[in-house]
Amino acid sequence: MNETLYTSFFTPDEWELKASLEARLGELAGDSLRDDDMSRIEALLVEAIESGRISRDAFGLNPIINNLQTAIIVVDEMGMRRAAIVSILLHDVVKCGHITTDDVAGQFGADVAGILRGLVRTASLYEKNPTIESENFRNLLLSFAEDMRVILIMIADRVNTMRQIKDVANDEARLKVANEAAYLYAPLAHKLGLYKLKSELEDLSLKYTQHDMYYHIKEKLNATKAARDKYIASFIDPIEKKLAAAGLKCHIKGRTKSIHSISQKMKKQKTTFEGIYDLFAIRIIIDSEYEKEKQECWAAYSIVTDMYQPNPKRLRDWLSIPKSNGYESLHTTVMGPEGKWVEVQIRTERMDDIAERGLAAHWRYKGVKSETGLDEWLTSIREALEHSDDDGLELMDQFKMDLYKDDVFVFTPKGDLFKLPQGATVLDFAFHIHTNVGSRCTGAKVNGKHAQLRQKLSNGDQVEILTSSTQTPKQGWLDIVTTSKARNKIRQSLNEIESRQAAFARETIERKFKNRKIDYDEPTMMRIIRQMGYKQVKEFYQKIAEGSLDVNLFIDRYVQAIELVTEPHDVTIRSAEGYSMQQDEQLRQHFSGDVLVIDQNLKGIDFKLAQCCNPIYGDEVFGFVTTGGGIKIHRCDCPNALDMHARFGYRVVKARWAGKSKGSLYPITLTVIGHDDIGIVNNITSIISKEENIQLRNISINSHDGLFSGTLTVLIEENARLQALIKKLRTVKGVKQVNRN
Fold this sequence. Notes:
Blueprint: H1 4-8, H2 12-29, H3 37-50, H4 63-76, H5 82-95, H6 101-108, H7 110-127, H8 135-145, H9 148-164, H10 171-191, H11 195-209, H12 211-223, H13 225-245, E1 250-256, H14 259-269, E2 280-286, H15 293-307, E3 309-310, E4 316-317, E5 330-335, E6 341-348, H16 349-357, H17 359-365, H18 374-385, E7 407-411, E8 417-421, H19 426-433, H20 435-439, E9 441-446, E10 449-451, E11 463-467, H21 484-515, H22 522-531, H23 537-546, H24 551-565, H25 577-591, E12 595-598, E13 607-609, E14 621-625, E15 631-635, H26 641-647, E16 652-658, E17 666-675, H27 680-690, E18 695-704, E19 707-716, H28 719-729, E20 735-740
Parallel strand pairs: 2-6, 13-15
Antiparallel strand pairs: 1-2, 3-5, 4-5, 5-6, 7-8, 9-10, 9-11, 12-16, 14-15, 14-16, 17-19, 17-20, 18-19
Helix pairs in contact: 2-4, 3-5, 4-5, 4-9, 5-7, 6-7, 7-9, 9-10, 9-11, 10-11, 11-12, 12-14, 16-17, 21-23, 22-24
């Protein structure tokens, strides 16, 4: 076989690095790899590279070197074995299409093929370009992966990538990778208890995204290292002597907080580096037998708190009830020398290994030497991933439940991600987006294919809801939907339709009665309705409203019934004319007022005026689709407009004012600045009070050194009136500036 292209794929340094990485991987993997695994993988790589299917990545890095480095991480840091190693090394061969996962199953085993299928599926999620920082996206990722080893490999791969890109020239790609590390991979590593890798991801992300902040903290840490080391030594020395005297075998080390952790504290506390006092923690690691671990940890705790005053609010007992990710430790904070607070962590050698390496170490201690017992390990990983660990304490009393078995995650065409219960239908999703969308839903396109209302959705489906302005909810829809939200909205809509039908039918009957000068008698009317076979009045009204029952037929029967029991006599007809006129006038005013015309594709969706810029009639505006499905209307010069267009351009829709502004008043805040002349407030309020349809709601004026500044809140109809008011206020003696907030 001619390997010229294969060998030239590596630089001399890379060729040398490849050999050393393969040797290191062989040492770590031990006998878990089969004798011919590496040679068969190499042969496939040679074929794929010779055919031009494998190339360097966006950073110019060699993918084969990267895969070897990633494989070493999953073995060394996570304790995984053959299936994970082979999957990583074959990933690029499968991704480029040189062989299929079925081929892999035949040559290397079903477990390797299963992991590779998970890696391919999860990679496909990025093509939909959703918001990766959302919790829903992490949940969908876990659901897609199926085998939790896929998630561990993805974390290891991102750690390796972050290590390798420090000197590459592609700043844009590096920034994207670094942001994903912070938003997606670090939280996953944290849930798994992979604290060492989590801290490394966060620090490197900070280094690439906030270069100045990272090096500012790093330089400060280097400058204060000698003083910190001296303080730690003085703190540790008496504790070591006391613990030794008590017969406890242990070693103590000081650990400086990560750069990312210090950065977060500086932001949260709004302070400088010098204002962060708990820069380090002391870790007491006891060499203890498993049966005596808790006893000896509490003994060490007693010795430390006898020497230094503890803060009772900062005791964390993860010995009695470990975290779901396997973490066990005692944490307390004590007042050390010079009045400095010091965090003290007490744990055993076994606990420390789990704290650094996560669940992989946990099961290594339980005797999982190879892939025997792996199912139990992966089940525990899934349990850890399925629990939110926002503060680390809520897990103690939380029952374990399989979240991802009961949820389904679907995308909109624009990439927004929604979570629904398993078994949810197209119609459920339509109501989940918005009530108006659900009420007018006629079907959908699921992954580009037409689907009916009752079609059930699957994980990762891309769903486009189809609507019609003539569509209304049907009684049968209640048998289609599975979510309580959709069911409640359908019932509510059906009740509203029934109410409208009843009002229309009743008004029709009353008008006919009036035209024929017939007295209206409620008991007689109800009796006739029952005689016509209607058990409920709403059924009768529905038939009248639909036109399937002739109202004149009903009135004829009513007249016959009246004539049987009463003699003709003069009747005073009760007129509803005044009421109807008033109602018509109210309706006319309601619908002829100021309206907003939104992008035609979003007709009928509720909108609200944004409070950040308070648009009024006449302002140039645009609409912004919120995550809840409604629309917020913003001024085009809103202070948030640039950010919304830049980051979420696909959610911006056109909007304009139409009709005439009548009766609607909008709150507007004005800032007024000028000289503090006598009577200035009276002059301002006098102008506003003389303006028709402008109400002064609030005024606040402060003066200092002959100058005043104040805010006015007024209710006003439209932009033209506002501009006229501002112009008049600027003519007031002493006023220098009048600006709309």
